[in-house]
Design goal:
Layout lengths: L1 E6 L5 H14 L2 E6 L6 H9 L6 E9 L4 H8 L4 E6 L7 H8 L8 E2 L5 H13 L3 H20 L3
Helix pairs in contact: 1-5, 5-6
Bound molecules: 5-O-phosphono-beta-D-ribofuranose.
5-O-phosphono-beta-D-ribofuranose binds next to strand 3.
Length: 155
């Protein structure tokens, strides 16, 4: 199983690369691609429609401004969709967050915080770890290591 990492523009890569770094750390296969809900709607639909058949477990979608990417992805698939609102130039990402988080009932997008690509990837890992025991062990180790760092922190 793999995860799709979509973004609306190459300008989102600086943030979305954080998700890819998590997948590399966990040894999760992923596919990254730039597709836009507005600039390339037909190509986006084609990509998402057969994502389940191509072995995807979840799709992460990062976009900024009028950030409709994750919602449109969710409209075309019943795979779990995780949205990453990207900090925008004009409104600091509040526009991205609000246009992503309030999905109509029945078409969910799990929206993380502004620029929260790392958490989006960790959520995808958690979804896959429900059935993947090896990944569950890695996730537990990740949490334990994180806790250790907090408890050993010196000021
Ligand atoms: C959105 O518009 C993209 O996801 C990006 O966050 C934002 C700006 O895109 P560019 O104008 O930098 O291509 O579609």
């Amino acid at each position: 199983m793999k995860v799709g990492v979509l973004m609306g523009s190459t300008s989102d890569w600086g943030v979305m690369s954080g998700a890819c770094a998590i997948f590399e750390q966990f040894g999760v296969e992923y596919e990254k691609k730039v597709l836009s809900a507005h600039r390339t709607p037909e190509a986006l639909e084609a990509y998402v429609r057969d994502a389940r058949e191509r072995g995807f477990a979840a799709i992460i979608a990062g976009a900024g401004g009028a950030a409709h990417l994750a919602g449109v992805v969710a409209a075309f698939t019943t795979l779990p969709v995780i949205g990453v609102p990207i900090k925008s130039r004009s409104l600091e990402g509040l526009d991205s967050l609000l246009s992503m988080v309030q999905m109509p009932s029945g078409i969910p997008v799990a929206t993380v915080g502004i620029d929260g690509a790392k958490n989006a990837a960790l959520l995808a890992v958690a979804i896959m770890a429900v059935t993947d025991k090896e990944l569950k062990v890695k996730l537990d180790e990740f949490r334990a290591e994180q806790a250790r760092k907090v408890l050993e922190a010196e000021l």
